TrEMBL record:
Keywords, alphabetical: Cell membrane, Cell projection, Coiled coil, Cytoplasm, DNA-binding, Membrane, Nucleus, Phosphoprotein
Location in or out of the cell: Cell membrane; Cell projection, Lamellipodium; Cytoplasm; Nucleus
Lineage, top ranks: Eukaryota, Metazoa, Chordata, Craniata, Vertebrata
Originating species: Vidua chalybeata (Village indigobird)
GO MF entry, a single one: DNA binding
Identification of the protein by name: Switch-associated protein 70
Pfam families according to UniProt: EF-hand_SWAP70_N, PH
Length: 579
């Protein structure tokens, strides 16, 4: 009933939109009740179309009344063609094109009904390009012409760029224009439209003339047979005015081929529960076609499936819905990707701004660093100038001190004593150097022993690696040797540690001797400084005397031979005076 209600609503929608509801709503409702065999409810009709602002029409619209009082009461016992013709009569005059068409009004009516069957279940009603192609193919095949796919593809591209599909009146204009039926006369096009109308709307699966054997008089009479999903009706002629009977089909029926008999050929039998019908086709091809068509219809009844054209329409709709869902999902994913891309762009913009800020801070810091460097260079230059001045002053002081050193040449005794102490210090220094040499030799010997031990350890390690790579049969013996070598390796490691300790002790001794040597050197230097301070050894370089110098145990004497004789005479004089 839901599918029937949807089919009825499409035709009613055309009539409803073409009328002025306030003036013609009652007429539409009355006509619908009449053609749909629904009992009239005058009270509800008058209440719904009450002429004031509080009436149900103004508040609720026409659909609640249509659903409650008309469509819910439809039982299916009505003439669909008559119902569609009533709706067509109400809407055709207002919407049908005034330009001349290659099809009659009756053909336009049939195209309008086919449109309602193939259109989408959404309002305003349109027929999508896929269904347009399906309908045009059916009409072209019925005319016996070839389908022009390339021509329709161009038309489809032009249509898709402007809208989703065509309205009923645009479809009538398209078929009536002859764009896809060029070379065909009006009668051929009309017959093709009628054939498609019979198949899609009247559910006529097959029709044609055949001979039928009577049940009472057993004579053969020519009848016009019409096969529908659950019935075969036969008429006197193809105008369908004089109906002679029906063959009710169900899942228990079957059809069988019969051999020729009684001068009749191409016989077949239709078996039902209560009756059996013998029929003769015009030729073998027609016989086979009717047998297959009737058997297919019975099979569909057994399976509970709808007629082929309705099932195909449902599959096409499901496919379009699936493609639409996939397209919507793809669009949703694209929107998500676009949103993610925009978020990434925002993040990149934020990072770019952060990088620009960081670069600005780095430039400011670099500027400060360069300024600090310039300031440090200026300060260093000032300190360098100050150091030069201080150095010049110190050189002047040194020159002054050098002149003062000449006053201490008379202190010879102190100088000799100091020379003795200096000699002792030199001896200490010499002994310290010998001790240092001894420690160095000891350290060298320890290093050589350590090197030898390391070489031996490396050799044992290589032997151990070679032993590991030996065959499994020698593994036990090699394991024992490895244990012995590991013990020897452990002993060698202990010896190496001992040598390391001895080396550390030698280094400590070397450091002590080095410190002693440095102390002796410092003492020597101290004594030399003292001697130079007291005896004036640091003095200005002057031309020496050409007389030969005296040589003492400590080196060249600090006085000449004439000065020594003068001092001897002075000592002798002092000695004589004291006696």
């Amino acid at each position: 009933m839901v599918g029937l209600k949807e089919e009825l609503l499409k035709s009613i929608w055309h009539a409803f939109t073409a009328l002025d509801l306030d003036r013609s709503g009652k007429v539409l409702s009355h006509n619908l009740c009449t053609v749909l065999n629904v009992p009239h409810d005058p009270v509800a009709l008058e209440e719904h179309f009450r002429d004031d602002d509080e009436g149900p029409v103004s508040n609720q619209g026409y659909m609640p009344y249509l659903n409650k009082f008309i469509l819910e009461k439809v039982q299916g016992n009505f003439d669909k063609v008559e119902f569609n013709r009533m709706c067509w009569t109400l809407c055709a005059k207002k919407n049908l094109s005034k330009s001349p068409l290659l099809i009659s009004d009756e053909d336009a009516f049939k195209v309008w009904v086919i449109f309602n069957f193939l259109s989408e279940d959404k309002y305003p009603l349109i027929i999508v390009p896929e269904e347009i192609e399906y309908l045009l193919k059916k009409i072209t095949e019925a005319m016996g012409a070839g389908w022009q796919q390339e021509q329709f593809d161009h038309y489809k591209i032009a249509l898709n760029t402007s809208r989703e599909g065509l309205s009923a009146w645009e479809l009538i204009d398209l078929i009536g224009s002859g764009q896809f039926s060029k070379g065909m006369d009006r009668q051929t096009v009309s017959m093709a439209i009628n054939e498609v109308f019979n198949e899609l709307i009247l559910d006529v699966l097959k029709q044609g003339y055949m001979l039928k054997k009577g049940h009472k008089r057993k004579n053969w009479m020519e009848r016009w047979f019409v096969l529908k999903p659950n019935i075969i009706s036969y008429y006197v002629s193809e105008d369908l005015k004089d109906k002679k009977g029906d063959i009710i089909l169900d899942g228990n029926c079957c059809v069988e081929a019969l051999p020729d008999k009684d001068g009749k050929k191409c016989l077949f039998l239709i078996k039902c529960l209560d009756k059996t019908f013998e029929i003769s086709a015009s030729d073998k091809k027609k016989k086979q076609e009717w047998i297959q068509a009737i058997q297919s219809t019975v099979n569909l009844l057994r399976a509970g499936s709808p007629p082929p054209h309705k099932e195909a329409r449902q599959k096409r709709k499901e496919l379009r819905q699936k493609l639409l869902a996939e397209q919507e999902e793809l669009e949703r994913q694209m929107k998500e990707l676009q949103a993610a891309n925009e978020n990434k762009q925002k993040e990149l913009e934020t990072v770019r701004k952060q990088l620009e800020a960081a670069a600005a801070r780095a430039a400011e810091e670099e500027k400060k660093r360069l300024q600090t460097q310039v300031e440090l260079q200026d300060r260093f230059s000032l300190e360098l100038e100050r150091e030069k001045m201080v150095r010049q002053q110190m050189e002047e002081q040194v020159a002054q001190k050098s002149s003062e050193l000449e006053q201490y040449l008379q202190r010879v005794r102190e100088l000799e004593e100091m020379y003795k102490q200096l000699q002792e210090a030199l001896e200490d220094e010499k002994q310290a150097r010998q001790d240092e040499e001894t420690v160095r030799k000891l350290q060298a010997r320890l290093l050589e022993e350590e090197t030898a031990k390391r070489a031996e350890l490396e050799k044992w390690h290589l032997q151990q690696q070679q032993t590991i790579q030996m065959t499994e049969a020698e593994k036990q013996e090699l394991e024992n040797q490895r244990m012995m070598k590991e013990q020897a390796l452990q002993v060698a490691m202990e010896q190496l540690k001992q040598l390391e300790l001895e080396r550390k002790e030698a280094l400590e001794q070397y450091e002590e001797v080095k410190k002693k040597l440095e102390t002796a050197a410092n003492n020597t230097k101290s004594w030399k400084d003292k001697v130079a301070h007291h005896e004036g050894l640091i003095r200005l370089i002057e031309p020496g005397s050409k007389n030969p110098h005296l040589i003492t145990n400590w080196g060249p004497a600090a006085f000449t031979e004439a000065e020594l004789e003068q001092r001897q005479r002075s000592w002798k004089g002092k000695k004589a005076t004291s006696e």
